[in-house]
Amino acid sequence: MVIDELKKNYIPRHVAVIMDGNGRWAELHGNDRIYGHQQGVDAVRSIVEGAGEAGVEYLTLYAFSTENWDRPKNEVDALMSLLVNAIVHETDNLNEKNVKMLAIGGISSLPADVQLKLAEAVESTSQNTGLRLVLALSYSGRWEILEAVKKIVRKAVSGEITENQINECEFATHLSTSAIPDPELLIRTSGEYRISNFLLWQIAYSEFYFTPILWPDFRKENLFDAIVDFQHRERRFGKTSEQIRS
Ligand code: IPE
Ligand code: IPE
Ligand code: MG
Q1: Annotated catalytic, 68?
Q2: What is the pTM of this model?
Q3: How far does residue 198's CA lie from ligand 2's centre (Å)?
Q4: Mutate which of 64, 68, 80, 139 to test ligand 2's pocket (most atoms within 8 Å of Cβ)?
Q5: Mean pLDDT, consecutive 10-residue segments, the chain of 246 residues?
Q6: From the CA of 22, how far away is ligand 2's center (Å)?
Q7: Which atom of ligand 1 is nearest to the CA of 192?
Q8: How far is CA 235 from CA 28, 159, 207, in A?
Q9: Structural domain boundaries of the chain?
Q10: For the domain bounded by 11-140+182-231, which CATH number is listed?
Q11: CA–CA separation, 86 vs 101, rounded Å?
Q12: Residue tagged active-site, from 32, 68, 128, 225
């Protein structure tokens, strides 16, 4: 799919991606899993560019889940150093493309050097006004919901909030995505049909797009395919088709 085939007036504001399949890609190419993760960086570069070109406002990438800490230590270490390298090497490119980088997740559990480089990149791109690139790092949807609950409980205990004031809108302001609209489109690569603890609250009404493409092979043209597919769907939000069309 090429960008000209997108309906320009109906681009999802927020696209979230579960970037999966690096390990299988590496195995297919007779290499180790780390190599697959390294190749995944090219895919990230391509879709950040494509999302910007298409006019997507927010692109959230699931880069490392809380559960991923349970992988073998050498893989976790390699992923962390790859992250530092990618952040350092891509910052100029993000600035050139007017991309603002943000991070969500348990950032304080990341190694100190990752936290430092991440903070530098967030600061360096903070004035950019184009695509917001949100990296989900050491992220888990249940963790995020529990964190929000704890914040609300503290406010309730101190009398800052009452039970009646807690509604969906109020709850969402306590999530790490409080400044970000819910994703209209969620993409998962590698032929897996699951959520793996990603954005559980925020995807209540997202459209899902699953593709067998392994993450290192994913390019902006594949993102455009997903957006075109999204553009052909009828989002009903509980209503009938008739109600939506009238
Ligand atoms: C996604 O690829 C990257 C991360 C989860 C960090 P995987 O590493 O999960 O690749 P597969 O699923 O084993 O192929
Ligand atoms: C989900 O992929 C997490 C990321 C893409 C960062 P996984 O490969 O870790 O998911 P599961 O464990 O197979 O569900
Ligand atoms: Mg996987």
Answers
A1: yes
A2: 0.98
A3: 9
A4: 68
A5: 91 98 98 98 98 98 98 98 97 98 98 97 98 98 98 98 97 98 98 98 98 98 98 97 95
A6: 10
A7: 12
A8: 37, 40, 8
A9: 11-140+182-231
A10: 3.40.1180.10
A11: 13
A12: 68
